[in-house]
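Q: May I have one protein plus its fold?
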Amino acid sequence: MSTAITSLSRYILPVFMAFYAFNAFLCAAMTEEERTGFEVLQDVFMVLIHVTGFLVLFLENGNTGLLLLCAGQELLFFAVIFVFRYVYPASSPLIINNLCVLLSVSFVILTRISPDKALRQFAIVAFSCVIGCIVPYFIVRLKEIRSFSLYFGIAGIFLLLLVFVAGAATNGSKISFSIGGIAFQPSEFVKLLFVFFAAGELSNYGSENPFTPSDPLWRLPRWGRILAASFIAGAHVLILVLSRDLGAALIFFVIYCMMLYTALRTPLVLLGSAAVGAIASVAGYRLFSHVRTRVMAWADPYSVIEDQGYQIAQSLFAIGTGSWFGMGLGKGSPGKIPIVTADFIFSAISEEFGTIFALCLFMVCINLFLMFMNAAMKSKDPFYRLIALGLAVSYGIQIVLSVGGVTRFIPLTGVTLPLLSYGGSSVMVTVIMIAVIEGIYALKNQG
């Protein structure tokens, strides 16, 4: 019986995920009144995916603790859904549903690969959701937050400098430091500060007298303020480059370029950004050996499969082995891929759940990105519009870099897949980002 259920799950799970992805895009095109029943249907598919995954894992090893863990996660999901649906009725239920379904897949695949890591991830997610449930309250009420934008930028530089000076090196890059045995990756949290900094400084560009005397830049002319903000943004990127955290440096660079283009609305920003990016790419290739290694592994991984190309080759083998419907949960060999729970989680999902499931999951990520962009386009306040845009770009570029890297579409950058990969700092910041977006939706719907 258990074997039959396990075998059947190979086909059931992709169908559930396909229905969810289709429903997510269908709801995005509907009005709030039209999609009420469809939102509940999304919750049903989320539960089916999550419970089916844990049921298969339970049948394979008989650990009843997995059923208790599954029940606890379901309680967390519905508590979050309840809070945002009834405490913040003006927020978007579609975003919260996407959050829950991505986390449900993450919990299943992490439990299959490393139960200890899955349990730690669940604890961090639960704590993050508590914070996330509070964030929209402050977004709606603390509209003076834009006055502190410069201080957000200064705080971000301070945190990055702290890591550069005292951080621990991981694979040659200084990206984290520990407090009381708990490791933090400050660049993840600085992304939030960076977006709020850039939004506060750039949203005032078109106003006659946008700043108050409390802002140190208020006496500068408009272009002076833009240059000052660009200098501070460049300092963030430069410190990340010096720390050899080039993936994060790229994300910060793209975020600021897109926010600057939105604020100035001139193609010169895009042309200049492309030129700077091209020069930086060539410089990075020449200056950093690990960049050359990743480019070599990307160009022809099989020629260096025993060394530089091992990671990407194993990733491609896993994706190819999974085929359309996957090997089945627990039937693959994700352990052959180094750093599988962080950088290569999409490969593990593709191997065990199949290409259909993985593609539909990718479409859910795209749907979440589009909901971020929708908040940006419909927000009337330039400050909140730029915040939503910055968070959307941050989330979107991480999806492209992560999935593109493990599928050999682009060279590896070491960027994790938000909400799916293992990593406390990443998942906490992503949950808070979503809570900020929900606060912006609440502001928009309040008029």
